[in-house]
Design goal:
Elements lengths: L21 H18 L11 H14 L1 H33 L1 H14 L8 H8 L3 H25 L3 H9 L4 H38 L5 H10 L3 H29 L4
Helix pairs in contact: 2-10, 3-4, 3-6, 3-8, 3-9, 5-6, 6-8, 7-8, 8-9, 8-10, 9-10
């Protein structure tokens, strides 16, 4: 009787692994190829300046101190609008997820108003709140509000109902059911919504600053484009990218810390 060797494992595939170092290496290769193509004259510096020129513009922006003024104003606007929109959206989403009347009224309103581009409402916000900071913060808050509502009530709906019924059968008070069962079960969806709304806040602050602001990263990018200085324009875009990565990293660590119980 012939002996059979070990059968190879066939359960692999469709399980991509993250290889450390691959992304930085690919990024470096892209920058080197970009720099070489620009120096060889294959790419016009008017349309796409060299990475070294962009880095020099960024260093000058930091050295002059202008970066911190623009960045500070943008972060303050994002933080103010995000906190207001998230707080209101969290309460509204929780009410829609838990209560019948708010659910019946809220879902149609959210479905009707959510698709409206919030930056299109900036002129109305300026009319209501003036050209100052209030209109920009209100626009960001409005843009953050609706995705937060959707994330919260979707997370509440995703909590297994048998857990809630079990708690009710043991006589657990409704307040404890919400705090100890519903909210912990909905946290993953809520935190994912926070990640989305942070990106929305970044997009809206740039748009709002381009329309009406004296300082801010969006205003800096707009001014660089108007003056036809592509190095400064792309330096501003790099700052926005780094700001988005920083916000995403903070939210990822927050999600891991709050979701450690899982």
């Amino acid at each position: 009787m012939a002996e059979h060797g070990e059968v190879p494992f066939r359960g692999g595939g469709f399980a991509p692994e993250r290889r450390r170092g691959v992304a930085p290496a690919a990024f470096v290769v892209l920058l080197v190829a970009w720099e070489a193509a620009a120096r060889l004259g294959w790419i016009s510096p008017i349309f796409l300046p060299r990475p070294s020129a962009i880095a020099a513009a960024l260093v000058e922006l930091i050295r002059s101190g202008a970066l911190w003024g623009h960045l500070g104003d943008s972060i303050a606007r994002i933080a103010g609008g995000w906190v207001l929109g998230t707080a209101a959206g969290f309460l509204a989403g929780l009410a829609i997820g838990l209560l019948a009347i708010p659910r019946s009224v809220g879902i149609p309103f959210v479905s009707a108003l959510f698709p409206i581009p919030k930056i299109a409402l900036l002129p109305l916000m300026i009319l209501w709140f003036g050209i100052g900071e209030s209109s920009k913060i209100a626009t960001i808050a409005l843009g953050v509000f609706f995705p937060t509502v959707i994330a919260v009530y979707a997370g509440v709906d995703g909590v297994p109902r048998n857990l809630i019924r079990m708690a009710q059968s043991f006589g657990v008070p409704p307040r404890d059911i919400v705090l100890k069962i519903v909210l912990p079960g909905a946290w993953p969806a809520i935190l994912s919504g926070f990640r989305i709304t942070a990106s929305i806040g970044l997009i809206l602050v740039v748009s709002a600053e381009m329309i009406g602001a004296q300082r801010g990263i969006g205003q800096f990018v707009l001014q660089a484009g108007n003056l036809m200085i592509p190095e400064d324009l792309l330096a501003g875009i790099v700052v926005l990218s780094l700001l988005g990565l920083t916000i995403g990293t903070v939210l990822t660590r927050l999600e891991r810390r709050l979701g450690r119980w899982r």
